[in-house]
Amino acid sequence: MGTTDPGVHVTGLGAVSCLGAGTGAFWTGLTSTAPRPAPVAGLTERVPDVLAYQVPEGAADTGDPYGRATRLALHAARQAVADAGLSDDEIAGMAVVLGTAGGESGERDGVTTPPAGWAPVFRLASEVGGELGAFGTNINVSNACAASGYALSVAMDLIDCGEADTVLVGGAEALGWAPLAGFSRLGANDPELCRPFDADRRGTVFGEGAAMLVVRSARAAAGRPSYGRLSGGGWSCDAHHLTAPDPAGDQPVRAAREALREAASGPEDIGCVVPHGTGTAHNDVLETRVLREVLGDRLERVPLFSLKAFIGHTAGAAAAFAVVAAALMARHGRIPANIAPRRQDPECPVWLPREPVPLRRRRILLNAYAFGGSNVSLVFEGGTR
Amino acid sequence: MTARHGVAEATVVGTGVVVPPVPLPPDGRWFDHRSRLGRGHRYLPEACHYLMAAAREALADGAAEQHAPERRGIVVGTNSAVTALHADIESAVRDGGIDSLSPMRVPFFSVNLVAAKLSTEHGFKGFNVTVSSPRVAGLEAVHLAGRALPAGRGDLVLAGATEAPDPRAGDALPESGAALLLLRARTAAAPGPVVRTALRFLPPRAAATPAGRERAGRAVREALDGVCPAPPPALHLLSDDSPAARTAADAVRAWCAGTTEVTEVTGSRRAGALAPLELLARAVRPDLTGPEAVVVASREGNLAFATVAAR
Q1: CA B79 – CA B164 distance, rounded (Å)
Q2: Which residues, in sequence order, are CB contacts of B271 under 8 Å at separation 6+?
């Protein structure tokens, strides 16, 4: 695919996760390692079932005078901007749209003497835009675990309506006491691993990190290398329960179908699904049913790549990580082997290839769901780089 | 319908404003969730109470029922809606006692649940989005609603802000309350006032350079030209003493010189994003004719511009 195609082109990627810093380390990690979560210093001593997939010490130290979430975001953002080859002028005109569930709430943990001035919890997009010198529209999205999925969709809308030509978009999450202890109180932490679709799963395990993309209009991307396009996005809300998904599943189905419709695609065009797949009991079963409804009898033949088994649930950054993974799969032409469940849940009869498989169709469906029944699906369409 | 670069538009079909009275009652208690909302809402965070009450006001005429649940959306902006709960959880962890936390209340560590409650209460299934940029999140929400409507994501959107006091507001003024606009896509046939919004950003360090200030000035002029169909008689300006906010505010005053009276909103340095929404929602009156304008310039660099005018 050339960059003269219409739509929203992905021209730069950046990632910092438990797999290391950089998209090279990310891809290598997805193809060669099975990380394990570790206790969270200062928290697990007090809340014993808390584990997390953590960015290796020193991997993302930028020396920037910001909170950890912003430092992670900045590291990934600089990678993405460099990867896209943006000029200083292009960076200055760039919009920034960032998704985060917790923002910098972790900066307040264990701090008994607060600063004199007000430090807003949600300031990641502002600080990233400020540090990079980006004058474009600057938006911080906080839709919990679907935040960066909505951020990506908002970035697509900004380009489609002409408000921006180039958008730095993604998600970032640092570890904070409120979500990790909160999940413990709700009995939703798995004490061993993040193991989506495993019959023995007991909840999720959070991960920290940031995933960023540079997305551009066809005009701005003309003549530049592109990983591919974000060609569809769909939103919906269960309006059912604050924390539990609606068992009917009709709203996530609607979001996925809307994304496919916008991408002018059908189930037969989908070469891979990067599911939301968190490892919580109800979500994985429900998502399986959603995919059955959307993909029909192709469900058992469409490979899933269960990303959270590698990097944990990166919450507001999860969907951006999924798109970065999709772009790398498209670039390499293959889907890495999944970390196989020890015993796959019979209620989740999805195909989780245990060996790398070729990406036979260019379009990849990505799902992100959140507390509050907030659903977003995206379609990424691989190109040539 | 988007008439100008970077400007989002929508038609206002309802408003809801729930803010503390001035002056406050002697005991400081101004909102009773039992009398405003009925039973069963005790576990909800304060900001959620305010938002629910504002939504009931905005939806009082039954406008929502004309649209299918899948065509109704919500976009809410907040900076501090759940910071008090975060502080409670942090304190419980520090004291080694998270069992003391209510499982009904704990999920609200996730800030988007405050707006999500509106979807469950009123059956808004189109979408539910929370945005949170410092001090501008309310106008940011209206801007995204003004983008979502013409993009076909829905036919009716509740958009606005809700806040509750941040226990770590520092030297900024904590906010309490909620303000919402009920919006439809602007079309030639749609009656009702029109809200226009634009978002801009001034990297704070750029405020220290002549080139940065010049670029900021251009951005401010372009945004004001975009949201003002005619020079407004008055403009409400919320800014602070930071270099970024001062630079933007100077550009706003220069644009207004000779045509528009600038009202500096006192106590502008707030730990929240509610005040501009309250001003905007209150401007929607039966006698509204010319545009009324609200501009926010924040120390973090976020700038937001809005007008509401008779169509």
Answers
A1: 9
A2: A118, A120, B79, B80, B163, B165, B166, B169, B170, B172, B173, B174, B175
Segment A306-327, tens digit of pLDDT: 999 999 999 999 999 999 999 9
Tokens of A355: 């060996």
Q: How many CB atoms lie within 10 A of CB B69?
A: 16
pTM of the prediction? 0.97
> What pLDDT shows up at residue B288?
85
CA distance B125 to chain A (A): 5
| Tokens representing residue A290 in the block | 């959603």
State yes or no: pLDDT of B99 exceeds 60.
yes
Which residue in this structure is represented by tokens 């998502």?
Answer: A287
Q: Nearest CA to CA, how far is B122 from chain A (Å)?
A: 8
From chain B, the residues in CB contact with A140 under 8 A are 131-133, 137, 140
For chains A and B, count residue pairs whose Cβ atoms are closer than 8 Å: 240
Q: Give chain B's domains with CATH numbers.
A: 8-184 (3.40.47.10), 194-309 (3.40.47)
CB contacts, 8 Å: A162 with chain B = 2, 5
B132 to A110: CB separation less than 8 angstroms, yes or no? no
DSSP annotation of A301 reads G
Residue whose tokens read 């890495």: A336
CB contact under 8 A, B120 and A47: no
* Structural domains of chain A sorted by starting position, each given as residue range(s) with its CATH number in brackets: 8-382 (3.40.47.10)
DSSP sequence for chain B: ---STT-EEEEEEEEEEE---SSPPTT-----HHHHH-SS-TTS-HHHHHHHHHHHHHTTT-GGGGS-GGGEEEEEE-SSTTHHHHHHHHHHHHTT-GGGS-TTTGGGGSTTHHHHHHHHHHT--SEEEEE--TTTHHHHHHHHHHHHTTTTS-SEEEEEEEE---TT-TTSEE--EEEEEEEE---TT--S-EEEEEEEE--GGGGGSHHHHHHHHHHHHHHHHHH-SS--SEEEEE--SSHHHHHHHHHHHHHHTTT-EEEEPTT--EESS-HHHHHHHHH--TT--S-EEEEEE-TTSEEEEEEEE--
Say how many residues make up chain A: 385
Q: Which residues of B7-34 are buried (b: 16+ CB within 10 A; e: fewer)?
A: bbbbbbbbbbbbbeeeeeeeeeeebebe
Does the distance separating the beta carbons of B116 and A138 come in below 8 Å?
no
- If you average pLDDT over residues B35-61, what whole number do you get? 96
Q: What DSSP string describes A318-367?
A: HHHHHHHHHHHHHHHTEEPPP---SSB-TT---B--SS-EE--SSEEEEE
Q: What is the pLDDT of residue A1?
A: 36
Residue A198 has what DSSP assignment?
Answer: B
Question: Three-state DSSP class for A184?
Answer: helix
- What pLDDT does B97 receive? 85
What pLDDT is stored for residue A5 in this prediction?
Answer: 57
Q: What is the pLDDT of residue A339?
A: 97
Residue A362 has pLDDT above 70, yes or no: yes
Each residue's pLDDT tens digit, A169-199: 999 999 999 999 999 999 999 999 999 999 9
pLDDT in tens, A220-260: 999 999 999 999 999 999 999 999 999 999 999 999 999 99
Contact between residue A229 and residue A8 where contact means Cβ atoms under 8 Å apart: yes
